[in-house]
Amino acid sequence: MLTVYGDNRSGNCLKVKWLLDLMRLDYQWIETDVTSGATRSEAFLALNPAGQTPTVVLEDGRPLAQSNALLLYFGEGSRFVPAGPYDRARMMEWLFWEQYSHEPYIAVVRFQRAIAGRSADQIEPRLMERGHAALARMEQALEGRDWLVGEAPTLADLSLVAYTRVAPEGDFDLTRYPNIVAWVARTEAAFGIS
User: Fold this and answer.
1) What is the DSSP annotation of 102-167?
2) What pLDDT score was predicted for residue 101?
3) Does 89 lie in the same domain as 155?
4) Which of 47, 85, 145, 174 has its CB surrounded by the most CB atoms within 10 Å?
5) Is residue 157 part of a domain?
6) Integer Cα distance of 71 and 17 in angstroms
7) Cβ neighbours of residue 85 under 8 Å, at least 6 residues apart?
8) pLDDT for 93-115, tens place per residue?
9) Domain limit, last residue, from 55, 75, 95
10) What is the pLDDT of residues 117-145, one digit of tens each?
11) What is the DSSP letter of 33?
12) What's the CA gap between 133 and 139, in Å, rounded?
């Protein structure tokens, strides 16, 4: 059985959990509060020297980390990974973009506001600017289309919905982005996210 170390407040952890549930894979979830120092213990650092969640221990004992790498590992061969090389690469393009240009702003502001309890005036304005730039990029990409890549949901949609759907917890008003609002609903339905 798989062992998953994850924090239920984390979109990075939840997107892996959602895929495992959808793929009907057996796993043991170990709730790992990243704010408590649990990911800095000697035992955890032996599994993941970066000290981050999610971290999965495979059935054979090998550890694997990084949310989008985990999505690719568990999603391999599923309907959520395009068969054609171009669409597959486009999906990966979105996965890389999510961790570089979306998550560092949307997720960080959401963490600071909703979990760390900081007030709006304590948030660095550049984080808000970059978060809105990421949302504007997605809004444009979804113009006239249902999914980020191709004609069906992919791991790109799953990856990006994790923090986009909770962006309002970081004061990002999604009503400014009607394509995103509709896409979030479609993606939640496609992946069984409630």
Assistant:
1) IHHHHHHHHIIIIIS---GGGS-HHHHHHHHHHHHHHHHHTTT-SSSSTTS--HHHHHHHHHHTTG
2) 98
3) yes
4) 47
5) yes
6) 10
7) none
8) 999 999 999 999 999 999 999 99
9) 75
10) 999 999 999 999 999 999 999 999 999 99
11) -
12) 10
CA distances from 67 to 58, 70, 174, 177 (A): 14, 5, 24, 25
> For residue 96, what are its two tokens?
């890389």
Q: Could you give the dihedral angle defined by the CA atoms of residues 116, 120, 121 and 123, in that order, rounded to the nearest 10 degrees? A: 60
The reply to whether 186 and 91 lie within a common domain is yes
Closest C-alpha to 93, from 132, 150, 52: 150
Laid out side by side, the sheet with 27-31 consists of: 27-31, 2-6, 55-57, 63-65
Q: Report the domain count for the chain.
A: 2
Rounded to the nearest angstrom, the gap between the alpha carbon of residue 44 and the centroid of all alpha carbons in its chain is 21
**Which residue type sits at 132?**
H
Pairing of strands 2-6, 63-65: unpaired
